């Protein structure tokens, strides 16, 4: 008689601990890949610059203060990042018609293309890392990520 595998219930604390253990290595991988992939393109980007492009992709017309808040940097740092991206023709900056002291930031077509290229290259690399993972486990990962996305999306929109 073979022993049955006893299913153990995972607590939210155990799940949180596993996330805290796992996410830093994944984030480190993403950052390294994005940096490497961005260097293949004409406008090499730092991670904060890439994060700014991704933020503006999700929030077109954002203000400098919104960018600073998202990146967790000062207004001066956000302004410097913006200027570098404007010089690289990746971001456009125009005065807000309602408040001339504020600017409206958007991705340029070049910025959208650059962001899409870096994402595609990074996604391809992630897929190659996951290529040997069995399909059932990949399905579990996708289901788990969907659960996490839904749980954390609610905290952002509240």
Explain this structure.
With 158 residues, the protein is mainly alpha-helical. The chain has a domain at 31-122: Winged helix-like DNA-binding domain superfamily/Winged helix DNA-binding domain (Arc Repressor Mutant, subunit A, Orthogonal Bundle), CATH 1.10.10.10. The chain is 68% helix and 6% strand. It has helices spanning 12-40, 47-58, 64-71, 75-87, 109-130, 135-157; strands spanning 91-95, 103-107. It has a two-stranded antiparallel ribbon. Strand 1 (91-95) and strand 2 form a beta hairpin. Helix 1 (12-40) crosses helix 5 and helix 3 crosses helix 4. The longest helix has 29 residues, at 12-40. The termini are far apart.
Draw up the topology in text.
Elements (H helix, E strand, L loop, with lengths): L11 H29 L6 H12 L5 H8 L3 H13 L3 E5 L7 E5 L1 H22 L4 H23 L1
- What helical percentage do the residues reach? 55-70%
Give unreliable regions as ranges: none
- Estimate the global geometry from the Cα principal axes: globular
Radius of gyration: 20 Å
Beta-strand content = 5-15%
Trace the largest sheet across and list its strands.
1-2
Count of helix runs = 6
Distance between the termini: 53 Å
CATH topology of the domain at 31-122: Arc Repressor Mutant, subunit A
CATH homologous superfamily identity of the domain at 31-122: Winged helix-like DNA-binding domain superfamily/Winged helix DNA-binding domain
The appropriate CATH architecture of the domain at 31-122 is Orthogonal Bundle
Secondary-structure-based class equals mainly alpha
What is the number of strand segments? 2
Give the biggest beta sheet: 2 strands, antiparallel
The CATH class of the domain at 31-122 turns out to be Mainly Alpha
Mean pLDDT: 87
């Amino acid at each position: 008689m073979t022993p049955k595998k006893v299913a153990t219930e995972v607590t939210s604390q155990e799940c949180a601990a596993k996330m805290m253990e796992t996410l830093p290595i994944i984030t480190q991988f993403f950052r390294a890949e994005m940096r490497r992939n961005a260097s293949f393109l004409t406008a090499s980007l730092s991670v904060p610059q890439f994060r700014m492009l991704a933020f503006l992709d999700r929030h077109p017309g954002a203000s400098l203060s919104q960018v600073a808040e998202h990146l967790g940097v000062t207004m001066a740092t956000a302004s410097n990042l913006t200027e570098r991206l404007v010089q690289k023709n990746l971001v456009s900056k125009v005065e807000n018609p309602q408040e001339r002291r504020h600017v409206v930031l958007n991705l340029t077509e070049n910025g959208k293309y650059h962001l899409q290229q870096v994402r595609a290259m990074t996604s391809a690399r992630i897929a190659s890392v996951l290529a040997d993972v069995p399909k059932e486990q990949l399905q579990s990962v996708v289901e788990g990520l969907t659960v996490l996305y839904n749980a954390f999306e609610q905290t952002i929109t509240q």
